[in-house]
Amino acid sequence: MSELPYLDGDTVRALMPMDRAVRVLHDALRAGLDPDGGPPRAVAAVPAGQLLLMPAWHGRHAGVKVAGVAPGNPARGLPRIQGAYLLLDGDTLAPLAAMDGAALTALRTPAVSALAAGLLARPDARSLTVFGTGPQARGHVEALRSVRPVERVTVVARDPARARAFAERCAGLGLAATALRIAGDAVPAGGAGSAGTAEVEEAVASADLIACCTSAREPLFPGALVADGATVVAVGSHEPDAREIDGELVARATVVVESRAAALAEAGDLVIPVKTGLIGAGHIAGDLAELVRGGVEPGPGPRVFKSVGMAWEDLVVAAAVHEAWAGR
Predict the structure, then answer these.
(1) Separation of alpha carbons 258 and 64, rounded Å
(2) 125 CB-near residues (< 8 Å, 6+ apart)
(3) pLDDT confidence of residue 186
(4) What is the mean pLDDT of residues 183-208?
């Protein structure tokens, strides 16, 4: 029996550029993949955080991701999300490959957001405000640049050193980049300065695109600040009592989700305003498949894409990674 190949994070990233990940997700949905076709993820609380079990099947493949969400990891210099993915043949369920689950997650989540933003955001969206400094925040800058002509990035984070380092990384990509602390100083990339809540509010109000990539459990900014026509993607939480955006923004917005069932079970950004009566479940304009197939028309207000992360996304991207590896 041959040894099961293991594709590490560098291999996953090399084989699957961001724009290709966006394309394979788009093609799978256009071909009829049903985001509601698989089982809900299983979640187990453990002392270090959560273990997630995420199985899926589609076309010629099946697979399962075992992911760990460890809130204490960033303080250790480790990604908050850990994991491994096992890809299987869809007919025989024989293992085909294992791969780095954290790298897969860091790729597919921004790719899903970019797929949505590419259909929701104004074509001339050039300014991006990103909350967070971790792998998801970095991935979202790359992904959103692949679908819109982003020129300016404002990084907003609690840790000024990490915000500055991320902004400098963006500046190295040729972007005009500034770092803001959520409450405190703001430091332009490569420079010095001071700012506070007013500057963060301006960064939200002036943004064409906003990416929320944090572990926050309460809204990051007042939703009233978001301009009509701006697009917000919120990816940081998958719990019904945690949210990065407030009900006022949700109520104003054209809201798209990966799956209505998953969003109304797991996305506090939507669950909370539904429970308080601010919106009804019917406020969701469509799911990602409907958006891709032309079934959602953005309204005049903000556009929101709320993601909780789904197993089919891992499977589609993992299968494409394996096919690229096998065809080297």
Answers:
(1) 19
(2) 117, 148, 149, 150, 208, 209, 231
(3) 39
(4) 65
